[in-house]
Specification:
Elements lengths: L6 H18 L27 E8 L2 E2 L6 E7 L2 E8 L2 E13 L7 E7 L4 E9 L4 E7 L5 E9 L5
C-alpha cells in the first residue's frame, strides 16, 4: 500500500495543471493597446460622436468604387475595427484610436488611429449633416492634402 501513496498527490498535481490550463484558455487575451502611448498625459479623449459604423464614400471629392471603399467601426473607448478590400477580397483588422484638440485651421479636433498591421494615422476630423457625415483630412509627406468623406451606415456589409 505504501507503494501507491505517491499516486494520489501526483494525480492531484496533474489535475490542477490541467484545470489551470483550461481556465486560462478562457481568459480574454486582448493585448491590444487601446490607450495612447505613454507621455500623452490627459491630452486625449474618446469622441462619442464617432461611435458606430462608417463607409468611405468620397476621396478628394470623387466617389469611390465598391472595391476602393473601406469601413471603420468605432466601438467606443478607443476600440474599433477597420474593414477594407485588397485584390477585391474583404479583410479586417483591429484598430485603436484616441482624439485630441487640434491647432488645425480646418477643425478643432484630430484623431490618432493605430492599425493592427502597425501603421498609424493622425488626421483632422469634423462632422456635418447632424453628425452623420465624417470628414477626415491629412497632409501627405509630399505636402498634398487628402480629404476622405465617410457616411454613417447601420452595419458593415461583411
Amino acid at each position: 500500500m505504501k507503494k501507491h501513496s505517491f499516486l494520489f498527490p501526483l494525480m492531484a498535481i496533474f489535475m490542477a495543471i490541467c484545470c489551470s490550463t483550461l481556465l486560462t484558455g478562457c481568459v480574454d487575451d486582448d493585448y491590444w493597446p487601446y490607450n495612447p502611448p505613454p507621455g500623452w498625459g490627459s491630452n486625449y479623449f474618446y469622441d462619442s460622436r464617432l461611435e458606430g459604423s462608417w463607409e468611405l464614400t468620397q476621396a478628394n471629392s470623387a466617389p469611390v468604387g465598391t472595391y476602393d471603399t473601406n469601413y471603420m467601426d468605432f466601438l467606443g473607448g478607443g476600440h474599433g475595427r477597420y474593414y477594407y478590400y485588397s485584390n477585391n477580397r474583404p479583410y479586417s483588422e483591429e484598430m485603436a484610436y484616441f482624439c485630441q484638440k487640434s491647432d488645425s485651421n480646418t477643425t478643432d479636433y484630430q484623431i490618432n488611429i493605430q492599425y493592427e498591421d502597425g501603421s498609424a494615422s493622425t488626421m483632422a476630423y469634423w462632422f456635418t449633416d447632424g453628425n452623420n457625415t465624417l470628414w477626415l483630412q491629412w497632409r501627405t509627406n509630399n505636402g498634398h492634402v487628402v480629404t476622405y468623406l465617410y457616411s454613417r451606415v447601420s452595419s458593415i456589409p461583411w
